[in-house]
Amino acid sequence: FNTTTGRMTITSGLNLLTLKKENRNIICSSYDEGKVLEIDIKNLEPRILMGMFNKEVPEDIYTWIAQTVIDDNGYGKIDEIQRNFVKELTFKILYGASMHTIKKDLKDMDWIYDIEDIVGRIKSNMGYHELAFKIKQEIKDGYFTNFYGRKLKNSSANINHYLQSTGVDVSMYCFAKINSILKQTGMNFKI
User: Fold this and answer.
1) Residue 60's closest CA among 37, 84, 31?
2) In contact, 90 and 127? CB cutoff 8 Å
């Protein structure tokens, strides 16, 4: 946990953070007949952003965004290409990519969509501008805090740091809760 946001970093050994899904079967339980469980909180940062500003958080955030900002056919049917485009675009927005970088990385889609317009509509629909305003209002002596009060240094990546650090805190809360529940069962486990 050696980052500005509190996210885990791997300094030696197997890097679980970047291990491809198809290779995760190399991880085995240290218990006889034990299981390895993977916990993934889907769309965590977008969920945090939308939830903070009382926006309804749909089951599939990326399909919802695609339906909201690029549904050209009016039928509400979004294909996998549109969903993946919106997912990649949302990550780029939340992780602080510049418009220049976004356009360069998504140049194959630029002829189909007005990228700047879609970026603006994604930000508006998710609460991005509200969070930027909230952070700006809270900056004091070069610092602001995330949702749970973790102190963060003012930088050009404030929204990214806010969402990632809040996501770490949510994850740690979830892991502590799971740990507590598993202890009550008397099950042998490691987290």
Assistant:
1) 84
2) no
Average of per-residue pLDDT across 83-96: 91
Record the pTM. Answer: 0.83
Q: What distance in Å separates the CA atoms of residue 40 and residue 145, rounded to the nearest whole number?
A: 25
Beta-bridge partner residues of 144 = 152
166 in helix, strand or coil?
A: helix
- Residue 88 has what DSSP assignment? H
- Say how far residue 61 (Cα) sits from the centre of its chain: 11
Tokens of 24: 């995760």
- Mind listing the pLDDT tens digit for each residue in 151-170? 999 998 999 999 999 999 99
> 40: which residues sit within 8 A by CB, 6+ positions away?
none
Task: Specify whether the backbone of 58 is left (phi greater than 0), alpha (psi in -120 to 50) or beta.
Answer: beta
